[in-house]
Write a structure and sequence with these properties.
Elements: H1 26-34, E1 39-44, E2 47-53, E3 56-58, H2 63-69, E4 77-82, E5 85-91, H3 94-97, E6 106-110, H4 111-116, H5 125-140, E7 151-154, E8 159-162, E9 168-169, E10 174-183, E11 186-192, E12 203-206, H6 213-225, E13 229-240, E14 245-254, E15 266-273, H7 274-281, H8 297-308
Parallel strand pairs: 1-5, 10-14
Antiparallel strand pairs: 1-2, 2-3, 2-6, 4-5, 7-8, 8-9, 10-11, 10-12, 11-15, 13-14
The structure holds zinc ion.
Residues 144, 146-147, 149, 162, 164-165, 167 line the site of zinc ion (ZN).
Length: 313
């Protein structure tokens, strides 16, 4: 079964060379920032500042312009090199973002909407995800988890140091298993309480300390829907900077049939036939049911099964 051209998975295929060796070289970073080809993203919490231009919305500023608009934040993060030109992320706090909301030169909007509505060139989504997740980590890790003292922004944003107990803290990414349980020609989809009406998707949950991806996949499906699973096949992964997740997409072989829903986690869950799921992906389901937006990995996990089937080894 073919559903036509495959849309691009959001926030992936970043062309940024992270150039980690530059992070500890303050002189080189200053020189890169002062070059005419340097650019910066302006990010405040969930919000991104976009410039209105004749050609559309542009997320790139000169570093000097971003610093000025953002209130001259001291700590700007180096994301890496894009075709040799430096890319930075400049943090905007609420007091810097608020006045821009009524400034005709800018659009202030969240990154989910930017991706889902295709408001900027796709090449910017990976670096925006990198910047947003990194700046979010800084905003939440101002104090040492070991001794409670204030920590310092170092390594161009890729570490925070505690000068009191000498602990070094590194940016975190939280792994999430997101999976489709399959039984022959049917798959298991669920509805979270926060989903819009009619939308069904994969089940998902955080991978816990000491847990393998495969075990997390089996545990989450069993906890949320009461289905036992056997073999698990890795599909693909996606950075998901809301605030700092890495979605790890899998297919799982269901070994049982009866669904028992954990109502604290899910609004509903049930089996769907392949043809019905194809119509949900194509947005032509007779009852208006839909699958997630193609920007999200759930769409691609579901579509891979519908189009190609999954072989467990
Ligand atoms: Zn400390």
């Amino acid at each position: 079964m073919s559903l036509g051209p495959k849309p691009r998975l959001g926030y992936t295929a970043s062309r940024i060379d992270r150039a980690a060796v530059q992070r500890s070289d303050a002189a080189a970073l200053t020189a890169l920032e002062q070059r005419a080809d340097a650019r910066a993203f302006a990010i405040g919490g969930e919000m991104v500042v976009l410039r209105k231009t004749a050609a559309g919305l542009d997320p790139l500023f000169s570093p000097a312009a971003a610093r000025e608009l953002g209130g001259y934040a001291a700590d700007i993060a180096f994301l890496g090199l894009y075709d040799g030109a430096a890319r930075f992320a400049v943090p905007f706090d609420g007091s810097a973002i608020e006045p821009l909301k009524t400034d005709d030169r800018f659009t202030i909007i969240d990154l989910r909407s930017i991706a889902a509505r295709g408001l900027v060139e796709a090449e910017h989504l990976g670096p925006l995800a990198e910047g947003k997740a990194l700046l979010n980590w800084h905003a939440r890790h101002r104090f040492c988890a070991n001794c409670g003292a204030a920590t310092q922004f170092v390594e161009a944003g890729w570490r925070r140091d505690c000068n009191n107990c000498k602990a070094a803290h590194f940016p975190r990414t939280d792994p999430v298993a997101i999976m489709l349980a399959i039984a022959g020609d049917r798959c298991l989809l669920g509805r979270s309480h926060r989903f819009q009406p009619g939308m069904w998707s994969c089940l998902a949950g955080f991978i816990e300390p000491g847990e393998a991806i495969e075990d997390a996949v089996r545990r989450e499906i069993h906890e949320e829907a009461g289905i036992a699973c056997g073999r698990v096949a890795y599909f693909a992964s996606q950075p998901w900077p809301f605030p700092a997740s890495l979605m790890i997409g899998c297919h799982a072989e269901a070994l049982s049939h009866d669904v028992t829903i954990d109502r604290s986690e899910l609004d509903d869950a049930r089996w769907f036939a392949r043809d019905e799921v194809a119509s949900m992906l194509g947005r032509n389901h007779p009852n208006g049911f839909s699958a997630p937006h193609p920007v999200a990995i759930a769409y691609h996990i579901i579509r891979a099964w519908v189009e190609d089937g999954i072989e467990f080894r």
